[in-house]
Amino acid sequence: MMMMLMRTDPFRDLDRLAQQVFGADGTQARPSAMPMDAWREGDTFLVEFDLPGVDVDSIDLDVERNVITVRAERPNRASDAELLAAERPRGVFSRQLVLGDNLDTQRIGANYRSGVLTLRIPVAEKAKPRKISITREHDDQQAINA
């Protein structure tokens, strides 16, 4: 089975984790999670991102070559609000997926419903298995009588 989804650069992931744990300004921060599932159904590769409470207009989806970048924002509460619990990450989150060359990034479909962003990425025609017909060569020579 050919790999459809490749992990991003581990050093970038480490930097992102450090920023999430320590915050961009060195203060303590909570991770900004964008959990995802990815699987293949027939000739389509599907990816779902959990983005509850995110307005569809704040979601930005870009494709450059074989890299998909998903950015979303869950706005911060009013500064004068008294927080009693703050377990849901807020602010801007971003996630990148590096796709294999066997996916058709020109025909990606995206749908947002009930807090879940679903991407449908078709397998490229050139990557689909296909049958090769074999022609039978006919013997055009006639037996030579001696």
UniProtKB/TrEMBL annotation:
Q: Where are the transmembrane segments?
A: none
Q: Where is the signal peptide?
A: none
**Top-level lineage group:** Bacteria
Matches recorded under Pfam families:
HSP20
Q: Sorted alphabetically, which CDD domains does this protein's record hold?
A: ACD_sHsps-like
Q: Which InterPro entries match?
A: A-crystallin/Hsp20_dom, HSP20-like_chaperone, Small_HSP
**Which residues are in the SHSP domain?**
27-137
Q: Give the protein family.
A: Belongs to the small heat shock protein (HSP20) family.
| PANTHER family found in the cross-reference section | HEAT-SHOCK PROTEIN 20 FAMILY MEMBER (PTHR11527)
Write the protein's name.
Answer: Molecular chaperone Hsp18
Source organism:
Microlunatus aurantiacus
